[in-house]
Design brief:
GMP Synthetase, Chain A, domain 3, Rossmann fold, 3 domains, alpha/beta, binds xanthosine-5'-monophosphate, about 525 residues, binds adenosine-5'-triphosphate, about 20% strand, five-stranded parallel beta sheet, nine-stranded mixed beta sheet, binds glutamine, binds magnesium ion
Length: about 525
């Protein structure tokens, strides 16, 4: 990721991630300020960071203490490179330490809502009220600002809560401007980006389509491509962009791997044939379910599914276009995928953070991949993709469709995936979705996986008789971008209807539970 080109001619802001809970959120906020941004791990050598010629660098928060022995540090070359730098929390403390100020554990810890007093607005806090509320989460404090820096704000516990040096084009705040609870957070970030760093405001969703169309034309030449089309918004938007670039030299392939939801294949076929003329529907249930026999480990499941997806696309490529004989110009096998930035980050490919789970389309790809990938959305967040979809005029049912993971119901069966278990889960899921839609909550809920605890049984009583069935878990969540999520407070009467219907209508299930875990610490899917 680190060497990837910035789409088009935009200024680049790199967010150096020191293990912040919400580094992705910082990048999103920068993009909201119409400046293109990406995240890099703090372990990336400074020479490589600077080689990308960032217009500004943001140092994120992080769990360590800057003075601890094993604390992730920053190569001080960053301060000598004549690149504007902004620090938040840990990043602010790193700046203080690295530029000759002081950081200490003063015992003055601040967590959550904190009142801040602006002593001097400077450029960073221009037009920000003298008293306002920010979100803090720190145990250490800057006790002395570096020489040449103006201290702009303080809290009751923290005398140095913000500083800037216009001469050096550097600034920092102890608080978290990226979270919504912080008042004027976006305004402060924009003052840094636009007024201190001088970043140009060119990044909008409008230019991404034209830029990608051009890049794809250059990549594919007069070749042909297949698009992995799932029915989800990401692949629909990716397909629409590639279709603009290469027209009918694109063929969309939808794989029914036997783990799709009730009625899904028919619905996708119906909806997409109108938009994309031909849709190649592959029935690969035997292949996938055969390969998954005996597999119980979540990561292994994902790897098997990722591999079988690619094998299916290889076969589809040959069927649609014939064998690729010469991998030279014009005869390369191209595969379009609707991969998004969070897929890349969570698969450990972006910020160099730990691999949380291998998304089938990134970390789950087999090593012997022969396709050249076309992923026009690889740097975007979902809300950005939806904006592009609307701009392209795709139907709103497509643009606002709730996400559904590529591995499908396979990662919602905790235990081995079998045909019978899939039938059970498919029915329970259909009931839950039907009731959610009937309650008019589709747009309020990000998604609501139903999970079958296939290896768990519990005792129940139905019709005066004992049952010994499986529980299902409802996992309704709200989210902005799937990077973080909260459990959705569904109305009780809706939960009651879902529970009653599932236990009445789905033999094998005698208990319905609700997952009330946010992300973090839980993830949205259970595997
Ligand atoms: N059943 C499928 N058939 C063909 N391609 C698929 C299938 N499932 C997933 N893919 C490919 O994998 C990519 C990643 O899946 P993912 O679920 O993240 O995206 P999506 O389905 O397009 O959108 P959403 O996240 O809203 O469901 C898709 O964009 C698509 O290219
Ligand atoms: O295409 C996909 N392939 C995958 O392997 C995959 N795993 C999770 N998801 C979806 O990603 C979002 C975040 O999910 P998690 O909180 O479970 O990581 C949620 O929207 C999940 O449904 C996937 N999508
Ligand atoms: N959120 C943060 O970046 C915290 C920074 C540092 N670990 C502190 O406690 O002060
Ligand atoms: Mg999907």
């Amino acid at each position: 990721m680190a060497n990837q080109a910035v789409p088009g001619e935009h200024d680049l802001v790199l967010v150096v991630d020191f293990g912040a809970q919400y580094a992705q959120l910082i990048a999103r906020r920068v993009r909201e300020a119409r400046v293109y941004s990406e995240i890099v791990p703090h372990t990336l050598p400074m020479a490589e960071i600077l080689a990308r010629e960032p217009k500004a660098i943001i140092l994120s928060g992080g769990p360590s203490s800057v003075y601890a022995d094993d604390a992730p540090g920053i190569d001080e070359a960053v301060f000598e490179a004549d690149v504007p730098v902004f620090g938040m929390c840990y990043g602010f403390q790193l700046m203080a330490q690295g530029l000759g100020g002081e950081v200490a554990a003063t015992g003055a810890r601040e967590y959550g809502r904190t009142a801040v007093t602006v002593a001097e607005q400077g450029t960073l806090l221009a037009d920000v009220p003298a008293q306002h509320t920010v979100w803090m989460s720190h145990g250490d404090s800057v006790t002395a600002a570096p020489a040449g820096f103006d201290v702009l704000a303080a809290t009751a516990q923290t005398p140095v809560a913000a500083f800037e040096s216009l001469e050096r084009r550097m600034a920092g705040v102890q608080w978290h401007p990226e979270v919504l609870h912080t008042e004027h957070g976006q305004q402060v970030l924009e003052h840094f980006l636009h007024d201190i760093a001088g970043c140009r405001q060119t990044w909008t969703m409008l230019n991404i389509v034209e830029e990608q169309v051009e890049a794809i034309r250059a990549q594919v030449g007069d070749g042909r491509a297949i698009c992995a089309l799932s029915g989800g918004v990401d692949s629909a938007v990716a397909a629409a962009i590639v279709q603009r670039a290469i027209g009918d030299r694109l063929t969309c392939v939808y794989v029914d791997h036997g783990m799709m939801r009730e009625g899904e294949t028919e619905q996708v076929r119906h909806d997409f044939e109108e938009v994309f003329d031909v849709l190649d529907v592959v029935d690969a249930a035997d292949q996938f379910l055969g390969a998954l026999e005996g597999v119980r480990d979540p990561e292994e499941k994902r790897k098997v599914i990722g591999r079988e997806f690619i094998r299916t696309f290889e076969a589809a490529q040959v069927r649609v276009f014939g064998e690729v004989v010469d991998e030279g110009a014009g005869d390369t096998a191209f595969l379009v995928q609707g991969t998004l930035y969070p897929d890349v980050v969570e698969s450990g490919g972006g910020a160099g953070t730990s691999n949380i789970k291998s998304h089938h389309n990134v970390g789950g790809l087999p090593d012997d991949l022969t396709f050249e990938l076309i992923e026009p959305l690889r740097t975007l967040f979902k809300d950005e993709v939806r904006a592009v979809g609307e701009q392209l005029g795709l139907p709103s049912s497509m643009v606002w469709r709730q996400p559904f993971p590529g591995p499908g119901l396979g990662i919602r069966i905790i235990g081995e995936v079998t045909r019978h278990r899939l039938d059970v889960l498919r029915r329970a899921d259909a009931i839950a979705r039907e009731e959610l839609t009937r309650a008019g909550l589709d747009r309020d809920i990000w998604q609501m996986p139903v999970v079958l605890l296939a290896d768990v049984r519990s005792v129940g009583v139905q019709g005066d008789g004992r049952t010994y069935g499986h529980p299902v878990v409802l996992r309704p969540v709200t989210s902005e971008d799937a990077m973080t999520a909260d459990w959705a407070r569904l109305p009780y009467d809706l939960m009651e209807r879902i529970s009653t219907r599932i236990t009445n209508e789905v033999a094998d299930v005698n208990r319905v539970t609700v997952d009330i875990t946010s992300k973090p610490p839980g993830t949205i899917e259970w595997e």
